[in-house]
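Q: Could you write out the predicted structure for this multi-component system? I'm mainly interested in how the pieces pack against one another.
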Amino acid sequence: MAAIARSTGPDGGAGAPLPRRAGAALRMAVRRGDILRWLGGIGAVIPLLALGFILVALLIEAIPAFRLNGLGFFDKSIWQLGAGYNSTIVSTDGVKHLSGSSFGAVPEIVGTLISSAIALIVGVPISIGAALAIVERLPRRVANGVGIFLELLAGIPSVIVGLWGALTFGPFIARDITPVIARNMPDVPVLNYFRGSPGNGEGLLTSGLVLAVMIIPIVAATSRDLIRQVPILPREGAIALGMSDAQTARKVTLPWVSSGIVGAVVLGLGRALGETMAVAMCCGVALNAVPGNIYATMTTISATILTQLDSAFTDGTGFAVKSIAELAFVLMVITLAVNVAARLLVKRVSGTALPVGRGV
Amino acid sequence: MVGAALPTSPSKTPETVTETGSTLLYPLMGTWTEAYQKAFATSAGAPYVTIETGGTGSGTGISDAANGTVDIGASDAYLSSSDMASYPNLMNIAVAISAQQINYNLPTVKKPLKLDGTVLAEMYSGKITKWNDPAIAALNPGVSLPAIPVVPLHRADGSGDTFLFTSYLNAQDSSAWSSSNVGTTVNWPSVSGALAEEGNGGMVSGCAATKGCIAYIGISYESKTQAAGLGQAVLKNGAGQFEAPTSATISAEASALTGKTPASETLSMIDANVSGGYPIINYEYAIVSKKQTNGTVAEDMRAFLYWAVHTGQSGTDYLDAVNFEPLPAAVVTLTDNQIAKIGS
């Protein structure tokens, strides 16, 4: 509006769209930045309100579930609406639910954490390696091309990645890769999770690897931008001291931006924890069991919410939906906790991040 | 006759009737809606009533109809007793007959396999792990069964199909499959190699990709299961005979059960003792509240549902495309009686 008023003014337009005084006041306000300040203020408050609103709304929906499920939610593994389709309504502590209902979220919580952990273990080294290569090794032309591909990869809708995982990648590793590993892995702690039935391509490993594919572009693109900002002087210094490329990267480049990289990893972890569609298509949605080995079917919080909401609606008491809200709340808390922890970590790390004066 | 009191055409006030729910009923709802809007339109071609359909899942259909967010919910399963208790105004109105096929991927077996609830329950609970198991061989003398692993497929999402299938397992052999494990989502026994698939479409493609699979798939997907080269089991019915899901066996089962259908049309049609009947069939339901807030919409809903269970039962025009069967005449009367209760 102000722009219009200004542009018609010099044209000598007698019929300016705004009355003279209002136009002048508006122009004044724009010049003083009042409007910008107000818009900015509103813009700043909305995300806060949205977060608060979602948390409170979820909590209100989930409170009956918290009361009735109690701690059993975190140490039981059975997710069951009731004892069969025609179970009766019973009331415990004033909360109505179906007889025989049981809501335990251990497989969901464990599945969410483990699949995200696999994604990080596989995805982060690849991402940082790719970022270092793009910045330091590849010719500029090639690096730009790779960078564009990374960004394109980040933009692939998750349902397409999920389809690839469920139809192509999962069956491929189940046929050609996991049987070999499962047969030959020694039966010692930790490694014995790689033994046993190689599964059929739906499960923990497929989900974790698909998640890795989804977080690599995020972590790699962010790390690349960070590494680009490392000044050339300390790196040249390191090389002058006779360090190899790998040593330079490990002792100079990465420590320089370590807090930023932690941030990038957390960004990826946030994506992995909450990713729904791709995991729901690849995980096998095994609601009632913690995966026995790394190939077994599993489920995550978000995949369970997606696939079980329709069933939950058949519970006339609404308690199943409330339990799903409790699941959602737990996921929200996990995600927020990860973010807060990352912030604390970044603070600690960034204090000593600069290698300068630390005797590289 | 009660049916005569029902409106045979929508009100002339333009209104929108919304429908959502069962993905199995969704294609039929779509063709019904299109034909209905064409049949009752102004001379300029504008329909008197617009019907918006959606395929979201039976549970959503029930819940949305209960909360009044849609006018008609579609469900493969009748209302559970808890739904009835919580929403006393809801009715399940039968609009067509559907069935469920049991499919398998065994390219070497050409003749349809005979299966029963006990064998299926043991396949889904991991007691039968190979296709050449003596229990399967006993049902199929003379058939050479491959020694490959059984891969049970089940639905990852909550589904009316899961309800029908687990109902059959429990009805045939309650010791092999407990009644507490009957529902739209069940506690599947942990079976090595078992696969979970999204939707009937996922079941078809998943089974086609997996040799040795066994799957339960809605009859409306029959052309797709055939195109995928999947076998279709002949199932043991409540009378001890083995029947394939054909128009004749489904209709035989349905007409034998008309007498048992109560006024509320809430009836499990699974595994009835009917000679020559297919054992997994069900009414497809429109879930509707008796109390509508808008009288015109209520009238439009009565008119549409009345049309659907009369004109809309034509096989060649509507039902054959999804392999559904028409309601027997006695059930149409029950449905008409329920439709007449939709008021404001």
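A: Regarding packing and overall arrangement: The longest helix of chain A spans residues 34-69.
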